[in-house]
Request: fold
Amino acid sequence: RLEEFLKKEVDLELSTLPDFEERVIDVSEVEQLMNSINTIPAPCAPVINPQAPNAATGTSLRVCWGLFSDDTVECYQLCYKPVSNERHSDEQAEHMLKVKETYCTITDLLPNTQYEFWVSALNASGVSPPSERAVYVTAPSPPTIKNKKIRSCENAALVCWESSDINPVDSYTVEL
Reply:
């Protein structure tokens, strides 16, 4: 019987057409309300701190900043570049690090060199404006004593040294 049934042509046309009403429902207000509940605003710009004493070595700098609002922050974007006196200083390579804390120690820097730093805060809604830029300076590399030029007598000694730093050093401290 099944075989006979499958051989028959079946007419699938409906004798009466369904009568549906066309309704337009405006859900824009509900959508706006739902979006406003689930979104957090993008954070405000962080404030970068000036360089703290003893925050530098010859090859590293510790940079700190703060966020003076109750904004939700997932991480920070710390950017820096060496400061250059040349006309094309904007063409210097910029470096960017993602950081969870409000501080970061940057390594592999050049001794006695100025670096410009700025930071932005990030959350799910977006990126804050960047902070003001701050200039930090790495410590000079230690000088090299010229052993062949050392002279001494009963009440005095002459010690000579040279610096391998490109930028001038403000002062030296000699310890005896």
